[in-house]
Amino acid sequence: MTVFQASATNGEAPPADAVAPRDSTADAPTSVARLNGTIRDFVARWNTVWVEGEITSWNVRGGNVFGRLKDTQSDAQISIRIWSSVRARIPADLGVGDHVVAAVKADYFVKAGDFSFTVSSMKHVGLGDQLERLEKLRVQLRQEGLFDQSRKKQLPFLPHCIGLITGERSDAEKDVHRNAELRWPQVHFRTAYAAVQGDRCVPETLAALARLDADPEVDVIIIARGGGDPQTLLGFSDERLVRAVAAASTPIVSAIGHENDHPLLDDVADLRASTPTDAAKRVVPDVGEQRALIGQLRARATSRLTQRITHDIAQLEQLRSRPVLRSPDPIIASRAQELWLLLSRGRDTIGRQLDAAARKTSELRASLRALSPAATLARGYAIAHLDGGVILRDAADAPAGTDLTITLDRGSLSARSDGEIPEAG
Question: Which residue in 210, 209, 239 sits closest to 224, CA to CA?
């Protein structure tokens, strides 16, 4: 355990009869004054140290500054005091959100038991070093493809609802609303406020982005901030915010600072606007321009339709003016005689062909009859058939008792063979 030994120093001396802290017991405790004096004397021996951090509190009272410094990588903080004499020697633009390096010396105030650090010098962290780190991060993100144009999403032509992330009651918010409403009076906003500088900037912007990106009614999101020095815009180059914007499903418009400001958010956003005013103009179409365009399109359509109808009427009149359409009767009369001759010629030709075919048919019929068995039967002959329809050609094939069928010119009859008749000698 560390033991604090009291010694004679400036300020209030501890009571002479008080027990030293290292000798205190339950029966013989030391006094608060002597304990505080011992701590003060111990702290007074600490040397001045240079510390780097972010200003999270900056209150000016009576020319003196009372504030806090936060570690940039953790939640660790210290209280600081800057007396008016020192404040006159440090940059006048220091404030909340600035990344600084300060020369501090520990100080313990006996009366209040308050431990803080007195600042003897303070300056901004070298911007060159920060910009160098940002450029390395920019190269890394570009190599990962986060800046590729192919991955950027198309903004809707007329968003139904615009998400806006900006500082509460900021000029950027007013500029976006005013210019968007001038262009399209029915535009609807859903605003999520966030700190636009300091240690709250990144976490609050991330939370606002997550909330608006998850809202199905939000068609596009604008992240807007007014101008500022590069130091105050560092939050919009934070790797966590940049990657969150790249991963968002809703199109993102970056409108940070002025034309010459270029945080990493500009590179990864789907659209970079030079100012909040420019963002409003890029996201919302101008109703006057759209009405004028519609008027132009209507005029062009009317002109083209009128030209087409006029052209078609002229062509129709030209066709109607031709002799064949103006007076078709002479043409029909001249063609009627030709048609009658063709019909007569056709009838004659068909008649001759039919007569020739009739004669040919008669000749074929006579030849067929001459060759037909029916003609032979008509002359008095008969045909004898055995069972099964076999024609009898030899008398030996019909011995006595054989049943026969005799076919005559008209009808058939059955008979029975008495055997072959011998030929007369």
Answer: 209
Question: How many other CB atoms are found less than 10 A from the CB of residue 146?
Answer: 18
Q: Are 67 and 55 in contact, with CB atoms under 8 Å apart?
A: yes
Q: How many CB atoms lie within 10 A of CB 90?
A: 18
How far is C-alpha 391 from the geometric centre of its chain's CA atoms? 97
The span from the CA of 307 to the CA of 313, in Å, is: 10
Residue 346 has pLDDT above 60, yes or no: yes
Give the 3-state secondary structure of residue 163: strand
Mean pLDDT of the chain: 85
Task: Tell me if 165 sits within 8 A of 195, measured CB to CB.
Answer: no
Dihedral, CA atoms, 231, 232, 237, 240, nearest 10 degrees? 120
d(CA 253, CA 223): 6
pTM of this structure: 0.49
How is residue 271 written in tokens? 């659209």
Q: Write the CB contacts of 177 (distance below 8 Å, at least 6 apart in sequence).
A: 189, 280
How does DSSP assign 215-276, residue by residue? -TT--EEEEEE----TTTTGGGG-HHHHHHHHH-SS-EEEEESSTT---HHHHHSSEE-SSH
Collapsed DSSP state (helix, strand, coil) of residue 402: coil
- Relative to beta strand 162-166, strand 220-225 is parallel
257 dihedral zone (left: phi>0; alpha: psi -120 to 50; beta) = left
Q: Order of strands across the sheet with 271-272?
A: 189-193, 162-166, 220-225, 252-256, 271-272
Query: Which residues touch 407 (CB under 8 Å, ≥6 apart)?
Result: 377, 382, 383, 384, 385
Reference 200, options 235, 154, 240, 232; nearest CA is 235
Q: Which of 120-124, 203-207, 322-326 has the highest mean pLDDT?
A: 203-207
* Predicted pLDDT of residue 394: 84
Check residues 127 and 322 and name the one with the higher pLDDT.
Answer: 322
Mean pLDDT calculated for residue range 298-316: 92
